[in-house]
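Marked as duplicate of an earlier ticket. Keeping the data here for the record.
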Amino acid sequence: MAQQDMHDDPQQRELLRVARIGKAQGLKGEVTVRLYTDDPEWRFEPGSVLYEQDGETEYIVEHSRTFKDRWIIKFEGTDDRTAAEALNGIELYGEADDPDEMLEADEWYPKDLIGLEARLAADNGLGLPAGQVVGKVVDVVDSPAQSLLKIRLTEPVVTGQNSKGEDVVEKTALVPFVEQLVPEIDLNKQYLTLDPPGGLIPGL
C-alpha cells in the first residue's frame, strides 16, 4: 500500500516552488532559505511537508524562525551543521493551495493569469467603453515593487519613429498587478479587467 501511495501521489499532486535552501545556520542543523512564497508562516509551520521537484523526497519542518528578515528552518533528521550544509541549493516545493480558497482570498498563481483576455473595466478612468479588449496576458513578470502583467496588445501601436525614420511599434504593455489597475479577475470566463491611467498602455 505504501508503494502504491508513493507512486500515485506525485502524479496527482500539484507542486509549486516555495524556497531554495541556502547556507547552514549555526551548528544544530538549521538552514537559511530564499523565499519564493508569499505565505512563509504557513509553509514553514512545524509539521509542514515540503518536497524536492520529484514530489517524492520529503522534508518535514521541525521548527522555523526569522532573524533579520531571513527565514531559518530546521528539518527533521538534519541535526548538525554537516547535514545542513549538504542541503545547500536544494529547491523545495509545496502542494498548491485549494483554488476555491485562493479565489476567496484574491490570490493568484501566474499560470492562472496567463492567457486571460484583458478588457477595460466599467467606469474606467479613461472614459473608454467598458469591455473594450486591450489584449491578452502572455506573462507575469516579477519586479521588486510588485508583479507586472505583460499584455500582448490586440492592435500594435505606432508610438514614434527611430533615428532611421522607421516606425516604432509597441506590441506589448506592462501593467502593475495591483487592485487599483486590475479590479476584476474571472477565471471561469477567462478575462480580467483593467483601469489604467493615461499613458500606461500605448494607444489608450
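See parent ticket for discussion. The CA atoms of residues 30 and 74 lie 4 Å apart.
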